[in-house]
Specification:
The complex is a heterodimer. By secondary structure, chain A is mostly helical. Chain A is built from 19 helices and no strands. Chain A has a domain of 210 residues: MetI-like (MetI-like fold), CATH 1.10.3720. Chain B has a two-stranded antiparallel sheet with strand order 1-2. The chains are: A mainly alpha, B mainly alpha. The interface between A and B is large, with 123 and 122 residues.
Chain lengths: 358, 312
């Protein structure tokens, strides 16, 4: 029964994704030429039917990745005409329980924020649970200066951004060769990539440490960039090559008929059509790299190369650190994350589900 | 596409293009994979058969590290603790996540609107978004032994100064660590399950309702089978994540007090960088890799069986 529901959902989503594919395809030049003649339209239509047929038997996990955008639109439509006004006593109870749960989840962050603006005297006098009597920025300013926060922020941004860009480029190139090129041995390469995704970083740590010490990149941001570009692209390749494996055959044929070379097909047809998956990968590579701890901690020794999480961890390691400074530092460290969340909420929501495999 | 392998060269999905023409696109990626992942991993396996302090001469000692590992109580303790970490990262958040996400979808989204539902979901997801090191430090701060918020909260009810050393007491350290990990993890299953639940046909619920099914029966007959793929993904990925747990342990307890909260990844890190027993650390990390791979293979086979059974 459930399989039927799933494949039905997959069919539905495939149609919508084919529609959006066709929409974004309009942007690409190859398809533009295609649309000029009557033959072209037939290909787009064929692409639609071929995706809905092809999608129905892909594994449902993959379908999840695809139908994300439909859900977010679908759910509002679905709710609006359901009887919202008939709320029973039990419904209110459920809401209250969930809000209480959410408050427990938020409790640490709320308390942290309150104490980030206290003086240590204030904290010692009234404890962590009261509001600040004399709100102060001194903890935040203190950590900002002490840790050279702009430098840490710059390092984190630089590393995460370069990894996200290069990781996406590598993922696309790999997936093009594996999913569309069907390069010989592609199954073995994908298996190796899956294993690479599961590998605990400790199993690579010491050899990488020795290697990077040897070539003089140890204790530089570039070591982190190189390592995480590859680690993230292993995940990206795994996801994207399965997406490209079900890339509509008709669109590929149309591109060939148009005389596009492989490189042109990649740039002007495949890339624009898979842009939404790629942008999700980009956001996630960025956030994952930003959040990394172990390898940066083992590789980045000097203050001027460290990242934001490392700066906070260093501070926490000093046991003499008073409670309010640590609270202020933690708050400052989560602000960039909150900003990403607000900026990229939609992409993150799509990506969490796509990123389920991580 | 892949027919006539023997006669014709393999063709790509791009008509008229041989598969081999795509090899150049693969070169940077495969080269990177080889240099950053495959070679270091094999190297690490080799290191597990040596005695080496990280610098100076390396001595090949055969399987001695592995033999020592088998009799090392700390090693077994670290995997026993991994079991508890799995309870905290997989079992409890998955059960709570199923409950919370289905109430969010069935009740909140339907009766209070999807805005309310996704707002509550975002609150639960917040700790997942933070860098794990930062999340761990925040919770460490909340659990501070002398003047932490948890102790202050308890003191409010007991009217006396409370100074429980949550992470430093051998009896409390592991449960406290588990609590922190649950807090970090909970948002993940909720978000994944909610997206799966959107797929469930509301008519199925209505049909079940007409048949007189109660909430629990609907949950078991309609909800659970529908989100089986998500459930599998969450269990697999969270278990792998749990086995790899490092940051919270390193930052909060350093495996202590004693070995009460030691986990394999911290144990190997400790061997690599703190006591410079690189060979032994390599053996620990290799065995962790093996455990993860074996688990993934067994789980995938099990998953295949479950999906087959549901088809019948």
């Amino acid at each position: 029964m459930s399989e039927a529901t799933i494949s039905a959902a997959a069919m539905g989503s495939a149609k919508s994704s084919a529609k959006s594919m066709a929409k974004s395809a309009v942007k690409s030049r190859a398809i533009k030429t295609l649309r000029r003649n009557a033959r072209g339209l037939r290909y787009v239509r064929m692409a639609q039917t071929s995706t809905s047929a092809g999608q129905s038997n892909t594994s449902s996990a993959k379908a999840v990745v695809r139908d994300e955008s439909e859900h977010s639109q679908g759910q509002t439509a679905q709710v609006s005409h359901k009887g919202k006004h008939i709320r029973s006593w039990g419904d209110w109870m459920a809401l209250i329980l969930l809000i209480v749960g959410a408050l427990i989840m938020l409790f640490p962050i709320i308390i942290l924020t309150m104490n980030a603006f206290k003086t240590i005297g204030d904290y010692n006098a009234t404890g962590p649970l009261s509001l600040p009597a004399h709100p102060t920025m001194s903890g935040i300013v203190g950590f900002w200066k002490m840790s050279d926060f702009p430098v840490k922020l710059g390092n984190s941004l630089l590393i995460s951004l370069i990894v996200a860009v290069l990781g996406v480029v590598l993922s696309v190139l790999n997936s093009f060769a594996l999913g569309i090129g069907k390069v010989k041995g592609n199954r073995w390469i994908i298996l190796a990539i899956m294993l690479a995704n599961m590998m605990p970083q400790e199993a690579l740590l010491f050899p990488l440490y020795t290697m990077f010490k040897h070539i003089g990149l140890y204790n530089t941001q570039w070591a982190i960039v190189v390592i995480f570009t590859i680690i993230q692209s292993a995940y990206g390749t795994y996801l994207l090559s399965s997406v490209y494996g079900t890339f509509p055959q008709a669109i590929l044929e149309a591109a060939t008929l148009d005389g596009a070379t492989r490189w042109e097909t990649l740039l002007k047809v495949v890339l624009p059509i898979s842009w939404s998956t790629i942008s999700v990968l980009f956001v996630f590579f960025f956030v994952w790299t930003w959040n990394e701890y172990m390898i940066p901690m083992a590789f980045l020794m000097d203050d001027n190369v460290q990242t934001v999480p490392l700066a906070l961890a260093t501070l926490q390691g000093q046991h003499t650190m008073d409670a309010t400074t640590l609270a202020a530092a933690s708050l400052l460290s989560i602000i960039p994350t909150i900003i990403f969340f607000i900026l990229f909420q939609r992409k993150l929501n799509q990506g969490i589900v796509a990123g389920a495999v991580k | 596409m892949q027919k006539d392998k023997a006669k014709r060269p393999a063709m790509s999905r791009l008509p008229g293009n041989k598969s081999s023409k795509f090899i150049p696109y693969l070169i940077p990626g495969v080269l990177g994979l080889a240099v950053i992942i495959i070679v270091p991993f094999l190297w690490n396996v080799c290191l597990s058969f040596t005695r080496w302090r990280g610098v100076g001469p390396m001595k090949f000692i055969g399987p001695k590290n592995w033999i020592r590992l088998m009799g090392d109580a700390t090693f077994w303790k670290s995997f026993l603790n991994s079991f508890w970490i799995i309870v905290a990262i997989v079992v409890i958040p998955t059960i709570l996540g199923l409950l919370i996400s289905s109430v969010l979808t069935d009740v909140i989204q339907k009766k209070f609107g999807s805005k309310t539902a996704s707002f509550i979901r975002a609150l639960y997801y917040l700790p997942q978004l933070l860098p794990v090191a930062v999340a761990a430090i925040i919770m460490g701060w909340i659990f501070r032994p002398d003047d932490g918020a948890i102790n202050a909260l308890i003191a409010k009810f007991t009217s006396g100064p409370v100074a429980i050393n949550w992470l430093g007491n051998p009896k409390l350290a592991l449960p406290s660590l588990m609590f922190i990990l649950i807090w970090i993890q909970l948002g993940y299953p909720i978000v994944i399950f909610m997206s799966g639940l959107q797929r469930v046909d509301p008519e199925l619920y209505e049909a079940a309702g007409l048949d007189g099914a109660n909430w629990w029966q609907k949950f078991r007959v309609v909800t659970l089978p529908s989100i089986m793929p998500e459930l599998m993904v969450v269990i697999l990925t969270a278990t792998i994540g749990a086995l790899k747990t490092f940051g919270p342990v390193y930052l909060l307890t350093k495996g202590g007090p004693g070995t009460t909260t030691i986990v394999p990844s911290y144990y190997s890190y400790n061997q690599f960088f703190q006591i410079h027993q690189v060979g032994y650390g390599a053996a620990i990390s290799t065995s962790l890799t093996l455990v993860i791979i074996v688990f993934s293979v067994v789980f995938t086979i099990f998953q295949g069986h479950v999906e087959k059974n549901m088809d019948d």
